[in-house]
Amino acid sequence: MDRITISDLEVFAFHGVLKEENSLGQKFLISAELYMDVSEAAKDDDITKSINYADVCKDIDMFLKNNTFKLIETMADRLARHLLISYKILNEVCVKVKKPWAPILMTLDTVSVSVSRKWHHVYLSLGSNMGDMEDNINKAIRLLDKEEDCQVNRVSTLRVTKPVGPVEQNDFLNGALYMNTLKTPQELLALIGSIEKELKRVRDIHWGPRTIDLDILLYDDEIIQTTNLTIPHIEMDKRLFVLEPMTELAPWLRHPVLGMTMREMTNLRLGLED
After folding, report:
1. What is residue 168's predicted lDDT score, i.e. its pLDDT?
2. How many other C-beta atoms lie within 10 A of the C-beta of residue 19?
3. Which one of 30, 69, 74, 247 is CB 3.0 to 4.6 Å from 262, fit for a cystine?
4. DSSP label at 183?
5. What is residue 6's predicted lDDT score, i.e. its pLDDT?
6. Which residues is 232 bridged to in the sheet?
7. 151 CB-side CA count, 13 A
8. How many helical (H) and strand (E) elements, i.e. helices and strands, does the chain have?
9. In whole angstroms, how large is the CA radius of gyration of the chain?
10. Are 229 and 216 in contact (CB under 8 A)?
């Protein structure tokens, strides 16, 4: 990945744990590594196809002057997220904040914090079998896309499917979507929970009817197993109502554990030769 580097930009701003730091202000040195594809800009010698680093420097200065944070850890995190959201061409940023005047009553050069943030590639399953099912799914998609650190890119065709499990209930409307997010897996799980709550999902019956059902299928190539989250989603390779929309969105995408593509897993479930 190509990179533009800004080193030790001086910004005078009002950040710190102490009251005096917030009122009197101090100097910070900001470095940023901006990762993107600059091949088109280089080929055409066209600044509009890259990032104007002068604009980025002014943006960093304005962002840090218009906000106040106690911790330079928070400052670095928020600045990195702000740059990714503001400049759509960026894939990843690394931000380093140096604090030359750290109040520790000892001689030092600087105290610094570095963070790396990037857009993560995520696939979610979508489902509903209560009320206006298509409207429920569309509302959930809009709520996801409303988050400034989430970008819904593509949504599959919605399909009517039979319910799984022993509970008698209506057929489902199912699909999947591909999105980018700056959220961690746990932050994304919390967002999904809040959306399901807003759309009045009730969890009284296991595998029971629901107004909306959102599940994280894949998050980059990560393999996660915690008490409340498993990625890749368990048994996604056995469920056609997941595999068919995933094959529509990304037939070439490989399951990070099984090593099979979405198309291969779909054909296997259908008993077809690949």
Report:
1. 61
2. 8
3. 247
4. S
5. 98
6. none
7. 12
8. 8, 11
9. 23
10. yes
Look at residue 7 in the predicted model and tell me its pLDDT.
97
The whole-number pLDDT of residue 205 equals: 47
Contact 84, 56 (CB under 8 A): no
* pLDDT value at residue 202: 54
Looking at the annotation, which residues are catalytic? 99
CA distances for 100 relative to 68, 143, 149, angstroms: 17, 42, 31
Residue with tokens 């600044």: 47
Question: Is the Cβ–Cβ distance between 93 and 35 less than 8 Å?
Answer: yes
Characterize 212-233 residue by residue with b for buried, 16 or more Cβ atoms within 10 angstroms of its Cβ, and e for exposed.
bbbbbbbbeeeeeeeeeeebbb
Domains of the chain: 2-118 (3.30.1130.10), 120-270 (3.30.70.560)
Edge-first strand order for the sheet with 92-99 is 2-13, 26-36, 92-99, 111-118
Task: Assess contact for 257 and 237: CB atoms under 8 A.
Answer: no
- Where does residue 49 fall: left (phi above 0), alpha (psi -120 to 50 degrees), or beta otherwise? alpha
CB 22 within 8 Å of CB 16: yes
- Ordered mean pLDDT values, 10 residues apiece, the chain (274 residues): 96 92 92 96 93 96 96 97 96 96 81 97 94 93 96 96 69 95 97 90 56 94 95 92 96 96 95 69
Instruction: Please state the pTM of the whole predicted model.
Output: 0.90
Cβ atoms within 10 Å, residue 171: 12
| Amino acid, res. 270 | L
